[in-house]
TrEMBL record:
Biological process according to GO: L-amino acid transport
Protein name listed in UniProt: Branched-chain amino acid ABC transporter, ATP-binding protein
Gene Ontology MF annotations: ATP binding; ATP hydrolysis activity; branched-chain amino acid transmembrane transporter activity
Keyword entries, A-Z: Amino-acid transport, ATP-binding, Nucleotide-binding, Transport
Keyword Transport set for record: yes
Occurrences of domain ABC transporter (ranges): 17-50
SUPFAM superfamilies referenced in this protein's UniProt entry, alphabetically: P-loop containing nucleoside triphosphate hydrolases
Keyword Transcription regulation set for record: no
Stated family: Belongs to the ABC transporter superfamily.
Length: 122
């Protein structure tokens, strides 16, 4: 089981003897995801998985999340880095002051200039 997890997170394998609190922010995020995946999960909920991470680490986390998607694990991502989240998503929900303003595909959001400007500022 642990080797399967290390297969997804080789950086954690390199640091297996290190205390979690001494890991970088990106490594701690990887550790949190790895801990969730060590169970037989059907759903993974991530709140701001890219917050405060360097772009190179965001890319690593994106690759890991793509692998998780390929495994068929449903993932819900709450993320302000909209472009990164939409690259991974099949579906998108846009909230505006706590109310659902849009539900559709991620591609619908990327294709709609109106949605991007009104809600996402991209």
């Amino acid at each position: 089981e642990i080797e399967r997890i290390y297969g997804h997170f080789p950086r954690l394998a390199e640091r297996r003897k290190q205390d979690g609190v001494t890991l970088s922010g990106g490594e701690q995020q990887m550790l949190a995801i790895a801990r969730a995946l060590s169970r037989d999960v059907k759903l993974l909920l991530l709140d701001e998985p890219y917050e405060g991470l360097a772009p190179v680490i965001v890319e690593e986390i994106e690759n890991i999340l793509k692998e998780i998607k390929e495994l068929g694990i449903t993932t819900i991502i709450v993320e302000q880095n909209v472009v990164a989240a939409l690259k991974l998503a099949d579906k998108a929900v846009i909230l505006d002051t706590g109310l659902v303003a849009f539900t559709g595909t991620a591609q619908d959001v990327l294709d709609s200039e109106e949605l991007r400007q009104e809600y996402l500022m991209i």
